[in-house]
Amino acid sequence: MSGSGLRSFVARRLLLGAAQTVAVVLLVFALTEALPGDAAIALAGDQPDPERVAAIREALLLDRPVLERLGDWAAGLAHGDFGTSLASGRPVSRYIADGFGPTLLLAALTVALLVPIGFGLGVLAARHEGGLVDRLVSGLTLAVYAVPEFALGVLLVTVFALRLGWLPPTAVGYGTDLLAHPAALVLPVLVLLSRPVCSLVRLVRAGMVDALASPYAAHARRYGVPGARVRYAHALPNALAPAAQQLARTVDWLLCGVIVVEALFVVPGLGTVLLNAVAERDVPVVQGLAVVFGVLTVVLNLGADVIAHRLAPRAGVAA
Amino acid sequence: MTTASPTPRATAGRRTGRFALGVAIIAVPLLLALLGPVFAGEPGPRAVSFTLGGGHWLGTDFVGRDVWRQVLHGGRPVVLTALGAGVLAYLVALPVGLAAALTHRRWLEELLMRPLDVLIAVPSLLLILLVASVFTPGAVGLALLVALVNVPDAARLVRAAATEAAARPVVEALRLQGESWWRTAFGCVGRGILRTLGADAGTRLTGVLYLVATAAFLGVGVEPDAADWAVMVDRNRTGLFVQPWAVVVPALLIVALTTGTNLLFDAALERTAPRTPGARRGRKERRP
To answer: What string of pLDDT tens digits covers the 319 residues of chain A?
Structure first.
């Protein structure tokens, strides 16, 4: 791999990332413009009294030209100013700061468990290819892979909270300090893990099976290289590249999952803030959160693509 | 290979077994979704919320309706919206992907594919929620949205497969013979990518089902009291400790529907797939 090849790839990928960021900001802004008729009246919803309409008009600066508003809003974003909520008048950045803790905790715990479990089970299944363990792991991951989080979540709550009484059914009453109540975190993290783990296990397993059956692995065995060394030093690195890309795609799933799981277990994180704002048509809050989520996705995807490219430059990561 | 491989016959038997398992799992929710409304009958009078028994086989829901009747009605919107969204996604992705693969004009390819690279960056549920915060999409709107978030990935796949198919000598021959673009694109290249599309359809349908159900659970594209399995799970959650059946039955049906779809497509594809080592790699692992 030549250094200049990597550098030019990173440069192209950065350019794409920048374009994606701009596109996310534009898309989010365009939605308020897409409102049919008078945006202020549409947003006032069920109680369109003139006072509220005027307040919304002022808060969104609807009297000014579109481009000027876009410029102001984008400039504000760059300085961390996300505007103020229509519903409460509080700055949107406060909403984000309040919800950040629980969401970060959920995401961090999930990723921290995802990587060892995913690789562990994947390697385990590949070692016993065709055996009972492999069939069990493969079948289970295939079955759970497609199940929506909310359906799995309520079933787990029914069994572990309702029937057995082992775990609390929701995080209600624990506030934002969830780390002090680990029992309330078990089910949410388990549900969040379900889909990404399945896809990662299947990917690592497929990569390992291919790598272990390849000529270089057979050759290493013929030279008397110990089995564990063949598995972990020779085969595993080759199974890593597709898995690294999958980890990036997992960002999208994790985000969907976090929103659903927070709604299901009443965790006061960013997902709950977003859903409340959507229900209240609190456009500035929705916009702010959408930009945060969108940019986060772009950045994480970028990072993972660069890592995947570093691991396997021929894999042809799109850029 | 030093690892013990199962005999071909054992593998084939297991595949048939998995296929049968997939059919068995998906049969219940699919039959309920398709035929349920026929047998549901007239709505009875409303009873007390969240009760068990009293002439109601599965009890009553959050506004006192018969849960069994809601279950019979609730599958159709999920299945139909998902199918509609899947078909729509391909209707857009196929022409775009084929045109990008077959054109010789570089700018046209860039024009078609680059916007999709940007759209793919937006998390799917976020886009749906964004639109829902401003409009109130109905079932059709939800199908359109879910189709939209699936277009970039599907178009990329079509383009990649079609580029490969278009490089074959037979396409070159057709071109030299002066066959029309449409005939070449849909007749030859289109047929050449059918297998890839078939493999993709399973993953995509699973992903579409997931998104449709999740959006309905979050209240997007559905009435707040709709007869819809996902809405039932959401609305009846408040009574989970009093009347679990109103939540557990629709949740189980959704699990069966999505798992069954996945198992069925996986088994069906393995049957038709060429048996080369590594051919299965990465098929099921794309994003939904």
So the answer is: 445 677 787 888 888 888 888 888 888 888 766 665 556 666 666 666 777 777 777 666 666 777 777 777 788 777 777 777 777 778 888 888 888 888 888 888 888 898 889 888 888 888 887 778 888 888 888 888 888 888 888 888 888 888 887 877 777 767 667 777 777 788 888 899 888 888 888 888 888 887 777 788 788 888 877 877 777 777 777 777 677 767 766 777 788 888 889 888 888 888 888 888 888 777 888 888 888 888 888 888 788 777 777 766 554 444 4
CB contact under 8 A, A199 and B285: yes
A91: which strand partners? A84
CA distance linking residue B140 with residue B35, whole number of Å:
21
Chosen for mutation from B21, B116, B134, B157 (greatest number of chain A CBs closer than 10 Å) is: B134
What lies within 8 Å, CB to CB, of A43 at 6+ separation is A35, A56, A60, A86, A281, A283
Cβ-proximal residues to A283 (8 Å cutoff; 6+ apart), any chain: A32, A43, A60, A86, B133, B134
Q: pTM of the entire structure?
A: 0.82
Q: What is the ipTM of this complex?
A: 0.81
What CATH code would you report for A95-318? 1.10.3720.10
**Range(s) for CATH 1.10.3720.10 in chain A?**
95-318
Q: Which of A215, A199, A200, A201 is nearest to A124 (CA)?
A: A201
Structural domains of chain B, count = 1
Place of tokens 């709709």: B226
Cβ of B262 within 8 Å of Cβ of A143? The answer is yes
